[in-house]
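Question (not urgent): is this output format expected?
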Amino acid sequence: MRRLAIFVENPIYSRFIAADLDRGELPLPLGMQKIALITAQDSADACANILAEPDAHPNTGFVLTGPRALDGNELAEQYSAG
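Got this back:
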């Protein structure tokens, strides 16, 4: 079993808010709530590794997230840095 956080490539982040980012705004309802975004490629790589050796992970669940949970301000800073 695997559970995912939100993909970095989610259209909400990349497409729908592009105009807002151009104005220096990140209109997401995160506030100080933290979220650890993960790339679809990182998720696929993790799943491939698990499936390559299923006997090494019996009855194991995985929560796939990005390397660091960020709040709204930290996420905006990363988007600003490009």
